[in-house]
Specification:
The protein is an alpha+beta fold. It is built from eight helices and four strands; from the N terminus they run βααβααβααβαα. The radius of gyration is 16 Å and the shape is globular. The chain binds adenosine-5'-triphosphate and magnesium ion.
């Protein structure tokens, strides 16, 4: 089971798309384990996008993610990191496939609505950046046996 971080960026929140986006993950079968809404400090934005520091789009990226409140969402599920990235789609909404969040709901460059962790290490460090450990809720779902199955054995 994996855990991953999603941020609904200021454009998604301003457009009233938090429910639509979180709903897609819920319907997929991913389990919500953390929800938080906040105004992002410059320090947190810079830490979150540290990997892009020095790139030409970095200042605009930090300005954008601090321009209004964001919703932080922690999700859990089998192969959750790659599954969520596939549901999010390519970075640029004009290139993202229909059926993905960016492909269906976005149209232009930086206005790509959502961030999702891209690997096991970044998911762990980003979850720790955006959530206190005690704010990630560990609970069972009665319906899980209908959603989460073991991989079929290969012969
Ligand atoms: N070439 C670029 N020009 C302008 N903005 C860019 C470019 N590449 C990335 N960005 C912006 O920086 C963000 C982080 O880039 P990254 O390569 O990590 O894409 P991503 O993983 O799809 O998006 P995110 O990290 O926000 O989930 C992107 O969401 C996008 O807004
Ligand atoms: Mg990224």
């Amino acid at each position: 089971m994996e855990r991953t971080l999603v941020l609904i960026k200021p454009d998604g929140l301003q457009r009233g798309l938090v429910g639509e986006i979180v709903g897609r993950f819920e319907r997929k079968g991913l389990k919500l384990i953390g929800l938080r809404m906040l105004d992002v400090s410059r320090a947190l934005a810079e830490r979150h996008y540290q990997v892009h520091a020095g790139k030409h789009f970095y200042p605009g990226l930090v300005d954008f993610i601090t321009a209004g409140p964001v919703a932080a969402v922690a999700l859990e599920g089998p192969d959750a990191i790659a599954t969520v990235r596939r549901m999010v789609g390519s970075t640029m909404p004009n290139e993202a496939e229909p059926g993905t969040i960016r492909g269906d709901l976005g149209i232009s460059g930086l206005r790509n609505l959502i961030h999702a962790s891209d690997a096991v290490e970044t998911a762990a460090s980003e979850l720790a950046m955006w959530f206190e450990a005690e704010d990630l809720v560990d609970y069972g779902r009665a319906i899980d046996s209908w959603i989460v199955a073991e991989e079929p054995a290969r012969s």
